[in-house]
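**Protein of interest**
===
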Amino acid sequence: MDKNCLFCRISRGASSTDFLFENEMLVVFKDINPAAPVHLLIVPKKHIRSINDLSDDDRPILSEMLMVARDMAAQYEVAKSGYRLFFNVERGGGQVIFHLHLHLIGGWNKR
């Protein structure tokens, strides 16, 4: 954990953020500036700065992030209507918080 990292503080429970999901590897919470009716962040508890900083040992974390994203899409009823998953990588790719996180957005045409 990085003591100055916002997502490290959130993932260890040092903020008032409500978790929609938590396990030993990840937390999931709503984005405070949503870009869609459903905008969730899937965040590993381990501090990984960005996709560029992944190691081979991080493969289980990435797999878990994708499986949890799939489950959250179903829970938030966007799985059938469709959703996007994306990582912003480095400042030029739109990354603002330098702790790996996966965006799940959808809900425009929820049916």
Notes: The mean pLDDT is 94. Helices lie at 6-11, 59-75.
